[in-house]
Amino acid sequence: MGFDFWERFRRNKMALAGGIVVIVLFIVSFLAPWIAPYDPGAIDLTEVLLAPSVDHLLGTDQLGRDVLSRMIWGARISLKVGFVATGIAIAIGTILGALAGYYGRWVDGVIMRFVDIMLCFPSFFLILAVIAILEPSIWNIMVVIGLTSWMGVTRLVRADFISLKERDFVQSARVIGVSDFRIIFRHILPNAMASVLVAATLGVAGAILTESALSFLGIGVQPPTPSWGNILTAGKDNIDIAWWLSLYPGLAILVTVLGYNLLGEGIRDSLDPRLRD
Amino acid sequence: MARYIIRRLILMVPLIIGITIICFTVIHLAPGSPTDLQTEMNPKVSVEAKERLRALYHLDEPLYVQYWLWVKKLAVLDLGESFSPDHRPVIDKIVERLPITITLNVLSMILIIMVAIPLGVMSAVKQNTLFDRITGVFVFIGFAIPTFWLALLLMIFFGIHLAWLPISGLRSLNYEYLPPGLALWDLVKHLILPVLISAFGGLAGFSRYMRSNMLEVIRQDYITTARAKGLSERVVIFKHALRNALLPVITILGLSLPALIGGSVIFETIFAIPGMGQLFYMAVMSRDYPVVMGILFIGALLTLLGNLIADVSYAVADPRIRVG
Fold first, then answer.
1. Cβ contacts of residue A205 below 8 Å, gap of 6+?
2. What pLDDT band is residue A34 in, cutting at 50, 70 and 90?
């Protein structure tokens, strides 16, 4: 990711916009305890379902809690789940992809079969089924999302390894007797990081979407812990009288996921050797 | 042709075995014993009764024996009985809802094809024009938008504010009293929002895929040849480029099947449509494990079937595949 990458990245307006969104989100969720106007759990039954006003910029929910504060804290949850889940997926995918690409033959066969089998399941079904069996908790959600999103990363890393394996620097390392482990992790893998970075960024976006869907259905982050998805559940229940509960959390999810997607696509475009003209 | 199909079917066998192993593993993630649900609530149940229950369900046998017994039942599609108070066979509950989910998904696919292909082709032909840029923006938003949120917004707008479309179920309450023409229109009105929501995500991805496919095909030599021959641009695009760009479409459609099936959980629940997705959601909420497992298994089988159909269709369309 040398000078060339940053030059191209700087010129890509969409990618920059995505990057700004991501950074702003980080800052907001980091500063949550200081910038949230109210306590996100503060129930006030005299202020139930109030429309947005000067006091409550995004209105209140069905228990009188301030929506803006809940959404700021919800950003923390979404980012936490997104990153941990994607981290797990990347870890599994990178290791399996590296092994499959480097060793080839039966190792490759077994691993790719495993990928094919996992891809047969509608991932949402699998996630729901596992969370139904183990109770919904933030940790369980993170692990399950991670365990169902590693397949794409595996394919990418495997492809990189297959092509990098034949390069001179790898051949020389083998000739002088460097162990397989070192070759994989210290020589080839750093060169495959480009695809992994793109996959990770896009993966965070996907994980945030999935977590919000799960929370919306009631099997994700459980109230009273705020999550953009579970605020939308209240939105659905009060659909005719509280439009603000349906509009704002969804907007937040949209902007966040869009930001990560643009950033990921931007990184991919800036790294793609084919686009150099 | 037949040989290709047989080869594909043989390749499917290890996949089915793998699916059963994963399903079995998921079932056994549950802490505690499956018989706890039937015995926990009753303090008078003796230890011997619990032992007998365990023996009845073969829970005292080693895992691989349990697996084999379970697979034998799966082969005849005996998915057990639901834990819910009606204790009906799981397979019955699924089969009565399957047609609705399949119909909705097929309708979504048709919508995706009808909209995404022209959009993708136009974007490719008019690359970098305003049309391409605007469609590009829509595609990006389509990737990022949570479908359940879109469903809520459309419900609020079309269902409540404008009151044009109904927001739940498949039939209105007065369905039986409507003449056939109005009854059909009633059904269509109920289907518009769910199908739209179901297709939305696929639309974005698909039109983008069509666009990049068309772009690649247009750069091919045979397109330049066709133009050099003096053929009109319309013929070049629609007769030559499009046909070749269209080929992978079938496989991609097949590959998007799991996403469509999985997505049906969300929109069927939101729109209260009595399909397999809604059954899955209700079973998850009530911890009705046999139904959850049954639908998980059936969902995987449907995906396999969809992929098989996609691959066979691709082989029918592209003779090069059959030989290789």
1. A82, A256, A257, A260, A261, A264, B144
2. confident
Contact assignment for A117 to B303 by CB distance below 8 Å: no
- Cβ atoms of A230 and A220 closer than 8 Å: yes
- For residues B98 and B192, the answer to whether their CB atoms sit within 8 Å is no
pLDDT band at A205 (very low <50, low <70, confident <90, very high): very high
* Cβ separation A258–B141 shorter than 8 A: yes
CA distance B14 to chain A (A): 8
**What pLDDT was estimated at residue A277?**
39
Model confidence band, residue A208 (pLDDT cutoffs 50, 70, 90): very high
Whether the Cβ atoms of residue A89 and residue A146 lie closer than 8 Å to each other:
yes
Interface of B with A in 117-146 (CB under 8 A): 140-141, 143-146
Contacts of A109 in chain B (CB under 8 A): none
User: Cβ separation of A261 and B258 shorter than 8 Å?
Assistant: no
The residue length of chain B stands at 324
Six token digits for residue B186: 């009633």
**B179/A contact by beta carbon, under 8 A:** no
Chain B nearest-CA distance from A129, in A, is 6
Rounded to 10 deg, the angle between the B242-255 and B289-317 helix axes is 160
Angstrom CA distances, A124 to A121, A211, A212, B270, stand at 8, 11, 12, 16
Nearest by Cα to B306 from B248, B255, B246, B249: B255
Within A1-104, where are the H helices? 3-11, 13-30, 32-35, 67-103
Which of A22, A121, A141, A204 has the most B C-beta neighbours within 10 Å, making it the best mutation to test the interface with B? A121
C-beta atoms of B146 and A250 within 8 A:
yes
Give chain B's residues under pLDDT 70.
31-45, 53-54, 56-60, 172-175, 321-324
Inter-residue contact A187 to A169 (CB < 8 Å):
yes
Q: Does residue A102 carry a pLDDT above 60?
A: yes
CA A265 to CA A258: how far, in whole Å? Answer: 10
- C-alpha–C-alpha distance, residues B77 and B66, integer Å: 16
How many Å apart are CA A159 and CA A155, to the nearest integer? Answer: 6
As for the ipTM of the complex, it is 0.84
**Minimum CA–CA partner of B280 in chain A:** A125
The residue-averaged pLDDT of A99-110 equals 88
The residue to which tokens 């690649």 are assigned? B216
For A14, nearest residue in chain B (alpha carbons): B137
Phi, psi of A60 (to 5 degrees): -125, 160
- Out of B27, B265, B300, name the one closest to residue A121 (CB): B300
Q: Half-sphere exposure of residue A140, counting CA atoms within 13 Å on the CB side? A: 20
CB contact under 8 A, A125 and B296: yes
The answer to whether residue A230 neighbours chain B at the CB level (below 8 Å) is no
Q: How far is A206 from chain B (nearest CA, A)?
A: 8
**Chain B residues whose beta carbon lies within 8 Å of the beta carbon of residue A140:** none
What does the block give as tokens for B270? Answer: 């939101």
